[in-house]
Amino acid sequence: MTKHLWDRLAEAKSRLAPVQSKYRVLFEDPATPDEPAKVLVPDPNFMAAALAGNVLPPIDTYQRDRLVPDGQPKEHPYAEPIGAMSEEEAIEYLVQKDIDPAVWRDYQGNRTIMKIVPVEMIPADRSFRNAWRIMQ
Amino acid sequence: MSTLNVSNVSDGTTTVGTSYVVNGSAKAWMHYNQDTTAINQSFNTSSVTDVAAGEAKYTYSSALDAANYCLQVSGKTDDNNTDSTGNRVWVRPFGSTATTGSSFTTDSGGTERDCKILCHTTWGDLA
Questions:
Q1: What kind and span of H or E run contains A61?
Q2: What is the model's pTM?
Q3: Domain boundaries, position B112
Q4: B109 part of a folded domain
Q5: Structural domain includes residue B74
Q6: Which residues of chain B from 19 to 78 reach within 8 Å of chain A, CB to CB?
Q7: Pick from A11, A36, A40: which is nearest to B47 by CB?
C-alpha cells in the first residue's frame, strides 16, 4: 500500500537538501480586481521533492480533491507518486495546485494576469506593496 | 528506511500510544521572511503567497481533513530588536481552508506590516 503523502514528505525532508527556486509566480485574481498582484513563492522542500521524484502525487488528484467536501476522503494523500520533474515542470505543477483555476485556466480577458518570472524581477522595495500590478 | 511498528511508546514508567505522538505532531510549519519573500524552513507546505502588505497565505502539500483546525501564527517585523513599533505587531490567523492557511499582521496603529520573522504552525487531522 502507498504510504501517506505526509509520511513521504517527512521522509523526503530527512534526506533531500532544500532547493530555493529561481522563479516566482506573479498573478492577479480576476475576482478581486482592486487587490494588488500576488506573488507565489515555491517552498524549498516541495521543490526538492518535485525534482527528486517519487514523493508527490499526480496533479489531477489535487484538482479532483478541490471538489471533495471537507471531512470526506481525499484522493491525493494515497495516490501513487509520480517521477522527477524539471524545475520548470515543478513550477507548472505548483501553479495548477496552488493557484485558483480562475487565474490559470478559466480567465478569458485580454489583460495578462499571470507571469512566471525570475526572482530578481520581484521588487525588493515594498514601500508601495499594495499598489503592485502586472505591467501590461 | 526502516519502520518501527509499535502501538505504544514507554520510558519504563509512563506509556503512551503512538497514535498520540503522530496525531499530536504539527502537521505543517513554516518560518518565512515577508520582506524578502524567502522561506527559511518548512514542512508540508508547497508554497506561500505574498498576498499584500502584511498578508501571507500558505498552501499545504498534504491537505488537512477540514478547515477548522488550529492555525498558530506569530512574528515580528525586525530580526534585531530595533523596530519598537514593529515589536508591538498583532499577527493573527486570517482564514483557513483544508488546503490553505492565511495570516495578517498590523502594528499598534492598524497599519499593515511585513514580518521579517513570520512563523506558522498547523495542528489538526490530515485528510
A1: helix A59-65
A2: 0.92
A3: 26-123
A4: yes
A5: yes
A6: 27, 30, 35-39, 42-53, 59, 61-63, 65-67
A7: A40
Query: Which band of pLDDT confidence, cut at 50, 70 and 90, is reported for residue B14?
Result: confident
Distance from CA of A75 to the nearest CA of B (A): 9
The answer to the question of residue B52 being in a domain is yes
Rounded-to-10 torsion of CA A87, A38, B95, B44: 10
Structural domains in chain B (count): 1
> Which of B43, B58, B47 is closest to B97 using CA atoms?
B58
pLDDT in tens, A62-119: 999 999 999 999 999 999 999 999 999 999 999 999 999 999 999 999 999 999 999 9
What residue in B sits closest to A3 (Cα-Cα)?
B3
Is residue A36 scored above 90 in pLDDT?
Answer: yes
Residue B80 to residue A3: CA distance in whole angstroms: 42
> Mutation test of the interface with chain A: which of B18, B46, B116, choosing the one with the most A Cβ atoms within 10 A?
B46
DSSP character at residue B105: E
d(CA A90, CA A98): 12
The dihedrals phi and psi of B10, each to the nearest 5 degrees, come to -135, 145
Instruction: State pLDDT tens for residues B77-126.
Output: 887 878 776 678 999 999 999 999 999 999 888 999 999 999 999 999 99
CA neighbor of A119 nearest in space, from A10, A20, A7, A24: A24
The Cα B90–Cα B2 span in angstroms is 44
For the segment B33-66, what is each residue's pLDDT rounded down to a tens digit? 999 999 999 999 999 999 999 999 999 999 999 9
